[in-house]
């Protein structure tokens, strides 16, 4: 599939470990209206790597999480939820400095007009320290996922680099979900610097065209050419680079020079949140099953359709039979709706 | 009533202006359980001076607010609510620095075991600047209310001192609701310093025994004697000092040497939040009607009973006939419950 | 002299205690050139209240200092110097947080073109805490001097208010040398707020017209009228307000409605630094001798002439006979030079 | 010499460019005593990369500097000095945020007991931004030197990574002088993280055993073995790793498996400051002349002897004939003294 074959070490006990953000989504119960008119909210576990980890666990993999939660009711809600999902939380530490849990209030004005009101000041997830990253969890895992938000501030930033160092040392495959969110970052230059340093060490890189543009802001790709982007990372560690072009779909580039596009499916869209996370979970699950890239992408697309048709992100992550069933029903034409 | 008679200038167009905290309460819908098991929340306007101002407006007074809200959906929710309550919001400015709205998640484990999870990092209400305090609002008001939380940080702290300066210049009566909350403050010494500087300028001071202890931490009243506390403030501007002793009730000291205790009423307590704010609104309303101190205290107590029997603080603030009716029904023995 | 007579309690053992800034002056040895061409510097103790305290001690008074120094060679240099000058340093604490000593590199391009390059980040003097202000030093002193720079930041700001509280409690006379320096302060509004709160409690206030303008920036004296300025403070605690008008000389206003101008003396000016500090020391010394205001001002002016004729500030503070001698020689016409 | 031959591109117009710290040394004029007894100081340009760049220029190379200075007399002193030394300062920008020039007061109690009092709060050199690093200067240079101190804080840290990126793109040789100084850094974990990320990209790495220990604190070399240290970097970009063992001398490891020790010379030591900088300048100069590693090390050692025999660091950097002469005189036994 790729010259630099991405192979998962079957002898390792854990399939998947994610490092990074754990937070709370507060989803407006009254949808299709501005948040000013919202009066009640429902609480879910959130954060891109948390969602992906929950997704992987639902798909039947053995998973663990490395992160930090606040020493309060919100923090305990998060840890409790992960444990009930079967995720190993021995790598989730508790902040003792008075940090709070990150919040994301979601506003759904219409299926295509969604926004988020973030609370990211003094959040516990960015307090994870390098010394708190448990080497044995990474040593025992086939696949490590990192997420860009965790690079936004010290000491979480150094914890991510420490996790990368352990993964390299123990030959875990590393996936990088760029997940760039402008708040929390101080400057574009800072953002680009650490995204690039991290990406150099990763085998699978997944992001939007705009996220890759941000990483290339100080030169090298003025025409925003996907092939130049992918080629840069193939010179380092990467074997697969997935670049998402919004409505125009995603393309997976591989270091053998090939590129792949996957079929997309119709969906009854409630909101767009969570699409990327469920896609990543589905795609990585496919790769770990030994499927080829198009099949893995297709599985990711179907998983995304299921999530965006529901009210939550984490809580809507599908099990494998649900995804297979969704694909089948789409192929039979049983599901109509906007194409995702 | 007092030697330093607290008289309201009848020629002024506005009855009441409050300065300080505007925030959001997110009250757990599932009560009598820990917040870890809560999944939905209902949103209300909150913050002690906001609650008192809403209370005064419900009681029929002409009111205004001086404060600052975030430039987001939460901020617009607050301003919209105040306006619908008939409060003049021309003194409410909008932050442009990316500050957020303060949040208070309430947890009601039982009527007597309530706690609050606060989000107070980078909040808009503490960004109010001295230059944004509208002198004409204070010049036109009979009574200014300040609240201790607004003293916790610059520039809000200086805005409060500016409001006090305008009130002195235009001979408004000044009430100080101590409302001390340890988060946000850097040190006890800092807290005591600014509480004392502000209290020197106020005519009516309302607080718990513990709040006055905090103000006296660097000497002067080792036996925690109410009379010493009150006497200190009578040497400055105060004519009335109300010291709350929890279950043992409140005592109002006046600078003629008298002290007053008010009757308390039974209540079916849902939660204890909001008791102090509704008490303050009721008491100040009574004073402004020309009632004597015991009658004003009684009215405040009854208003507090109504609020603690309901799910919210701001939204439960009663109208005057409701309070009179409550007192009457208590006198007739129609209301049983825990005494407030 | 004033209606609110400023009388020093003769029974108190200490004449004078100053609270505030202790720092290092590094004076260019090569003068009359830009600092870019300077290669060697000589080190002196500096800081306005330190200079005044050294001046008072040289004049023969019993003095003490309340402040904080860095835990390094510079800090020990300062404490050692004060002790050798006979100043009680039991109120000088040592920072343990890694703060540094404030530095002032002076540049003397010409006698009338002097500037200062300040190092004021993370300085020890602004780390003095309210709890470190020794009540017994203030209780035992006839006169307390505070200086505006110490109000610039917490916790030093609260330490000054604590010192004022002790001075009020123990009936010490309080002098306020405004000494406003824009660096360190966050905003003009913050500056004005705390200067005003402090000045309300002081008996003697000394500053430039521009410093008083800064304090009146939020209204009350649009025509910058000295009489309005002085009258405001006479409503609070002040009996003497000295307003300096640069080349046009200083005027002392007293709360009996009088105003006084003092004779000025010629001087061979080397640099202008230190003029205000030596003036303050001389003037306050005169008052404490029971001299009338014009005599005290004259003594201050002569002391200032001596300091500006030399290379340093602190180290050049004169003894009383030197000042008397200077006045005498001026009267005899033995000293020519620019008028100070 | 090494498998990964370190070859300098002769077609490039510039020999050497350094990026990083520019500051001021204030050297006590009264030596062999504690700084508390010092009263005068002499000012020199300082900062490890500045010293090395001055050294390279004195040795006859074409040099440039990339850094940032304060907008004050100290900043202009630095830029002026560099220019007079023939260093291209087109890459030296001027801070506009009110940052100050870093200061290092040196205390020489005895030739072997020297210490430094640093002023590093809010310093201009750490404000250099990635966007201010001039690509053309690095593109045109044979050798780029980075220094660890510049990694201590954003945005300077990202500027260094940007410089490394340009150097890689334009195939400049990269030397890393570890120059670890604990102040300024927030935590050991942060320090190790960025030192390692930078070192991965460098061809020549020079540091003390303790500096390499700090980089290996999270595992990999518990016995502090030089060969393990060197081998790690040979897996990345390095061809030469020099590890300094204090009195036991320095060892240069090369990626062909060899190691080299150089002769040391006697010196009349005044102070130890500046030894490492002059050594680095001499060694890199030797390499650029095409000398073998032992000869280059010897030249570095002799340059260091000259600097530690004098009062300053930067100002004492020798010209090439001086170094050759020093070596010759040592060989003839004309120079006695402590061995350096």
* Mean pLDDT value of chain A: 94
User: Approximately what portion of the residues of chain A adopt beta-strand conformation?
Assistant: 15-25%
Most extensive chain contact?
A-B, 25 and 25 residues
Instruction: Tell me the radius of gyration of chain A.
Output: 19 Å
Indicate the CATH topology of chain A.
Answer: UDP-N-acetylmuramoyl-L-alanine:D-glutamate ligase
- What is the level-2 CATH architecture name of chain A? 3-Layer(aba) Sandwich
What level of helicity do the residues of chain A show?
25-40%
Under CATH, the homologous superfamily of chain A reads Ribokinase
By secondary-structure content and strand pairing, the structural class of chain A works out as alpha/beta
Report how far the terminal alpha carbons of chain A are from each other. 27 Å
- Secondary-structure element sequence of chain A? EEEHEHEEEHEHEHEHHEEEEHHHE
Count of separate DSSP helical elements of chain A: 10
How many domains make up the coordinates of chain A? 1
CATH class of chain A: Alpha Beta
What kind of assembly state do the chains in view correspond to? homotetramer
Biggest sheet of chain A, in brief? 9 strands, mixed
């Amino acid at each position: 599939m790729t010259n630099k074959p991405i192979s998962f070490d079957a002898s390792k006990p854990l399939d998947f470990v994610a490092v990074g953000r754990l937070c709370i989504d507060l989803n407006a119960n009254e949808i299709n209206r501005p948040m000013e008119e919202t009066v009640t909210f429902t609480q879910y576990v959130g954060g891109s790597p948390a969602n992906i980890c929950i997704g992987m666990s639902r798909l039947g993999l053995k998973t663990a999480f490395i992160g930090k939660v606040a020493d309060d009711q919100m923090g305990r809600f998060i840890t409790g939820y992960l444990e009930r999902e079967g995720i190993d939380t021995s790598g989730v530490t508790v902040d003792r400095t008075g940090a709070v849990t990150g919040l994301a209030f979601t506003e759904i004005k219409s299926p295509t007009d969604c926004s988020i009101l973030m609370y990211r000041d003094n959040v516990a997830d960015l307090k994870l320290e390098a010394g708190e990253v448990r080497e044995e969890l990474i040593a025992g895992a086939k696949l490590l996922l990192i997420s860009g938000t965790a690079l936004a501030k010290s000491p979480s930033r150094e914890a991510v680099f420490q996790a990368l160092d352990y993964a390299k040392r123990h030959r875990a495959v590393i996936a990088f979900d760029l997940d760039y969110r402008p708040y929390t970052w101080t400057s574009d230059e800072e953002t680009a610097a650490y995204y690039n340093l991290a990406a150099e060490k990763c085998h699978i890189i997944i992001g939007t065209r705009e996220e890759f543009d941000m990483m290339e802001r100080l030169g090298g790709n003025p025409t925003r050419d996907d092939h130049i982007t992918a080629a840069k990372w193939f010179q380092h560690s990467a074997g697969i680079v997935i670049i998402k072009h919004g409505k125009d779909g995603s393309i997976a580039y591989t270091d053998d020079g090939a590129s792949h596009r996957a079929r997309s499916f119709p969906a009854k869209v409630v909101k767009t949140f969570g699409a990327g996370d469920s896609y990543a979970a589905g795609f990585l699950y496919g790769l770990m099953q030994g499927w080829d890239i198009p099949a893995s992408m297709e599985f990711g697309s179907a998983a995304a359709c299921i999530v965006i048709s529901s009210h939550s992100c984490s809580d809507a992550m599908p099990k494998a039979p649900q995804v297979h069933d969704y694909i089948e029903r789409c192929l039979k034409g049983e599901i109509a709706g906007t194409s995702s």
